[in-house]
Amino acid sequence: MAKGKKSVFFCQNCGHEESKWLGQCPMCKEWNTFVEEKAPAGVTKGTTAAARSAREAKLIPLSEVDADEDVRYATGIRELDRVLGGGIVPGSLVLVGGDPGIGKSTLLLQVCRKMAQMKKIIYISGEESQAQIKLRANRMGSFSENLLLLCETNLEVIRSVIEREKPDLVIIDSIQTMYSEDVASAPGSVSQVRESTNIFMHLAKGLLIPVFIVGHVTKEGTVAGPRVLEHMVDTVLYFEGDRHASYRILRAVKNRFGSTNEIGVFEMRQNGLVEVENPSEYMLNGKPENSSGSVVACSMEGTRPILIEIQALVCRSNFGMPRRTAAGTDYNRVNLLMAVLEKRLGMSLSNCDAYVNIAGGIRMNEPAVDLGIVMALVSSYRNRPVDEKAIVFGEVGLSGEVRAVSMPEQRVNEAKKLGFETCILPEVSLKMVKDIKGIRLMGVKNISDAVGFI
Length: 454
Prior knowledge:
Blueprint: E1 7-11, E2 17-18, E3 34-38, H1 49-56, H2 78-84, E4 93-98, H3 104-115, E5 121-125, H4 130-138, E6 147-151, H5 155-165, E7 169-173, H6 190-207, E8 211-215, H7 228-232, E9 235-240, E10 247-255, E11 263-269, E12 272-275, H8 279-283, E13 294-301, E14 304-316, E15 324-327, H9 331-345, E16 352-358, H10 370-382, E17 390-392, E18 395-396, E19 402-403, H11 408-417, E20 422-426, H12 430-433, E21 440-444, H13 447-451
Parallel strand pairs: 4-8, 4-9, 5-6, 5-7, 7-8, 13-17, 15-16, 17-20, 20-21
Antiparallel strand pairs: 1-2, 1-3, 9-10, 10-11, 11-12, 13-14, 14-16, 18-19
């Protein structure tokens, strides 16, 4: 092979580079992730522009750096601002991932519609034509002339346009379609995605322009491309939910400018995504009355309490090995809680099928839903309904004790606001909520105390 045309192998998961193909990546230990690509031409050592700039670089004391945390751009969509930590930070690089058709482009186009009234925005699309974007925009309403469209995939052209126009916000849809002529590989490859993200990162930091990047996801649900892509950006947002259902959840898995515990809830309608201001009421819509196996629990997502309906169905198994299914919560956690019920309450569940579901399709893994799962299982096993005006929360230990959880005041206040009359909670948390009036508080020490209300 001619000089300069040597091949190298990149790990698609972490971006690790090797000179030959390996079955397992030595860095991330994943199997069959190496792909072959042409190695970039070497750079001659010597006095380069980078070397000259290194000699001229100046060190600045941290105490003299001016950083104003109040400088953020409001998107006009409060759920998105909540997830971002209060708004868009100038110079930030935000990656938005999600399944096809989940609403990534729709959300970003709505951000453009809100912010274009005051800011200059460039929407760069490598997947759709201008006519296709216009047809999608017509469903949302009128747009300001400050929103400029560019259908281009060449990074050199895109860079020159951004440097010339100096917009207030740039949208890239999507990063897998962008390519650089300096990289001898196809668009969407490891090298192209890494180089494209690197160019947008320098543009964002150098010009203080916030850049939103749309990323495709793999069948496992992670952003396609090297894992280094998520390390390079400032914020990683994931759109979750069933594309055939109406609700969507926006969750931050990385955020250098805010918390990663906040979520945004949206509902997909004909005219785009609509914010769900009260997710608890939305999740409980359609809850059956006086039905066994149905319990309302409270989970915290950041600073937001969300009431969810936990459903359980326990019945005798017709086979020697009972079947266990969990939708919306950890399967192993359900098995653990059933073992606690057998050991501490003497319930014979080893020959029973058990199905646990969190209604609405939302996924919750917080330990505070343990008590709700336990009471739903016992309610279905005994075929006795739980008071429909009662809400429960608490972590269950292996000894059957009910342990304290964080922020009980917010959970009780959310239940009170939605009209619940009784709250079953850990007894150690009673002293933190004793000043809340208008709702009956029932503290429990262990699961035997809790199932006594069934």
